[in-house]
Amino acid sequence: MAFLTNLILLPLLLLATFSPTPSVCYVSPSAGRVHQSATQTSAYRTYIVLVQPPPSGADGEGHRRWYETFLPSSKIGESGEPRLLHSYTEVFSGFTAKLTESELDAVAKKPGFVRAFPDRTLQLMTTHTPEFLGLRNGTGLWSDAGYGKGVIVGLLDTGIYASHPSFDDHGVPPPPSKWKGSCKAVRCNNKLIGAKSLVGDDNSYDYDGHGTHTSSTAAGNFVAGASDQGVGTGTASGIAPGAHIAMYKVCTKKGCKESMIVAGMDAAIKDGVDVLSLSLGSFTSVSFNNDPIAIGAFSAISKGIIVVCAAGNRGPTPQLITNDAPWLLTVAAGSVDRRFDAGVHLGNGKRIDGEALTQVTKPTSKPYPLLYSEQHRFCQNEDHGSVAGKVIVCQSTTPTTRYSDIERLMVAGAAGVVLFNNEAAGYTIALRDFKARVVQVTYADGITIADYAKSALNDAVATFTYNNTVLGVRPSPVVASFSSRGPSSISLGVLKPDILAPGLNILAAWPGPSFKIISGTSMATPHVSGVAALIKSLHPDWSPAAIKSAILTTSDAVNNIGTSILNERHGKASAYDRGAGHVNPAKAADPGLVYDLGMTDYAGYICWLFGDEGLVTIVRKSSLSCAKLPKVKDVQLNYPTLTVSLTSMPFTVTRTVTNVGPADSTYAAKVDSPSSMTVHVSPETLVFSKVGEKRTFNVTVICQGVGASEMFVEGSLSWVSKKHVVRSPIVAIRGAGGPTPAPLP
Ligand SMILES: *[C@@H]1O[C@H](CO)[C@@H](O)[C@H](O)[C@H]1NC(C)=O
Ligand SMILES: *[C@@H]1O[C@H](CO)[C@@H](O)[C@H](O)[C@H]1NC(C)=O
Ligand SMILES: *[C@@H]1O[C@H](CO)[C@@H](O)[C@H](O)[C@H]1NC(C)=O
């Protein structure tokens, strides 16, 4: 029975101090959303405490009374602040309370205590995207699934701007009778059926915008003529425009407290949501038995709720993925086939395709002098160099260039700025609205422009043209540079992220009422939540694991020019960049076969990874003990993607698929692999005569001639019938597949 001490808080604090990355999983300039309680010098700290369940039959009040038996009877200070801040009943038996360290020691000694965690502050990590994902009005999946009719999408976020036209309820029927939630907002209707604040202000209003954006992406209704200041004009809608929305406000401008996130999950489970969408996460990956989100989400999935989470915005550095527990659906971010054109025409006749959110409607055709110099290399203008009348070419800083830098250049009289990506961002242009003549270009184009400016010196000139929204950009999707990469540092044998979805320059609702273009895995997540809602509407009896399997095995491995999906450097993206592939909603609704997982499978896996201690914390079922459960290695979990050892050969994993397609179906194994990877599938044919029938097969992998510097090689297995292709990536990685949890390579 352990508790975490300051160990976790420290890295968060450091990162919060040095990084202007926001507390939500989107890439935005606004600094300082992450204020870990640096000023919390008082001896009291907030702890999330897990305890054993109260005597059976206890109601909400009974839970509270049981929890209070763990706490000191004294109130805090002269103001008499209560100890108990949140009392949980659904997500787990436990509570949040303010305690001193010595009081916590006393709590930990009481019978029934399980575990305690200090309350951490986490980071919160579209008009065109439904069409890009193949969803069209009146046809196919949208009409089959009734646009997500009858499904409730719960979001844990910053609140909601309830009167936005995206949350109008035209065409949306009343919620199903199982709905038990309440709605406290300026407008509640059949679209917005739930709105609740867990942050203590009793006000679900979205002071940030993030929650309004994610809600409308998942399940916003149709709004004609949406645009961000004239950019990206079209009819906006969420992925499941017929579904209901329930907002649980768990984040403030200071970030999202774990105690509040857990309170939001607790309420959402009680209220009866079908899908939970979390565009937030911790900065560092946390062992699942120490992660209240992973622990809480386990309760949600055991009740049939699918939990969709952002992978984080810490790419392209490997292994910084968050929300990587196997029972979560972890979403990476990619580009869409749309750009907001701004051309840079150089004096030497070259045209560079840039992008700008501030589109100038009547640009001058007069060329501006171009300046690239050490003095302004990162757009700084400390020594007030002569920038007047010139266009400054400068490089974006990590993670994002400050508005104030650009503003200082403009105030000093610059005619404009060509802002080019840093090398790590490569081809990913995460657009920002500088409200000035700023054109953003890729790293490669930036180098071309800088080289020209350096060599042509005083003769260097450029003109700008603007062509607004351009569709059909090729290649797309491309994995966005900021999208966090696998492998998971906790469980190497389960491929993470799971899936790629649109997350770069996404237009969606914003308080105002208006629309705004922002980027992040926060934006990719609700796309997948919307897809899960559509599938749930068609297949209400499918488990969260079956819905995940359907989304993964039907995803696209290729882009819109028919080649492998690329990463931000325009190299071939790996499974650790993009997961199984790019989400394909229409195909996900009809996968043919699914790789299902039940609570016992996960329990066996948790026993393998953490032993009884993990079982008590995460699964919390007194009828289960690790001694009686078959231990399940991560590589043997019935996951819809395959991870094997690169070094121990031959290496065999076993999987079981369930027929959810036509009763009489025959599938043949088809393997795609590089020459260094040999794959045998046994049996090679699966014959089904009933719906719901299961078939088990072995996949044996032998890798040979792999260079010592290569960490992993990748192939794929597809089960192919007349109607379906059920594809799983196969990743062979060093270190996976050991008898005990593997250390990272
Ligand atoms: C799609 O259909 C909905 C109603 O079913 C309608 O409100 C919306 O305007 C339509 N969108 C387009 C782009 O035609
Ligand atoms: C502007 O966009 C339109 C429509 O996408 C396209 O046909 C045209 O070629 C573009 N013009 C330039 C100069 O890029
Ligand atoms: C799969 O492998 C296991 C263990 O190696 C073996 O017992 C089983 O017979 C194999 N099944 C098939 C269908 O090859």
From TrEMBL:
Family annotation (InterPro entries): PA_domain, Peptidase_S8/S53_dom, Peptidase_S8/S53_dom_sf, Peptidase_S8_Asp-AS, Peptidase_S8_Ser-AS, Peptidase_S8_subtilisin-rel, Peptidases_S8_3, S8pro/Inhibitor_I9
Keywords: Glycoprotein, Hydrolase, Protease, Serine protease, Signal
All residue ranges annotated as the Peptidase S8/S53 domain in the record: 148-558
A biological process from GO: proteolysis
Organism domain of life: Eukaryota
Compartments, as annotated in UniProt: Secreted
The Inhibitor I9 domain, residue ranges: 46-125
Domain PA: 369-446
GO molecular function, one term: serine-type endopeptidase activity
Active site feature: D157 (charge relay system), H210 (charge relay system), S522 (charge relay system)
CDD domains: PA_subtilisin_like, Peptidases_S8_3
Domain Subtilisin-like protease fibronectin type-III, first and last residues per copy: 636-731
Signal peptide bounds: 1-23
Coarse class of the protein's main subcellular location: secreted
GO cellular component: extracellular region
PANTHER family cross-referenced by the UniProt entry: PROPROTEIN CONVERTASE SUBTILISIN/KEXIN
Family to which the UniProt record says this protein belongs: Belongs to the peptidase S8 family.
Protein known as: Predicted protein
Organism the protein comes from: Hordeum vulgare subsp. vulgare (Domesticated barley)
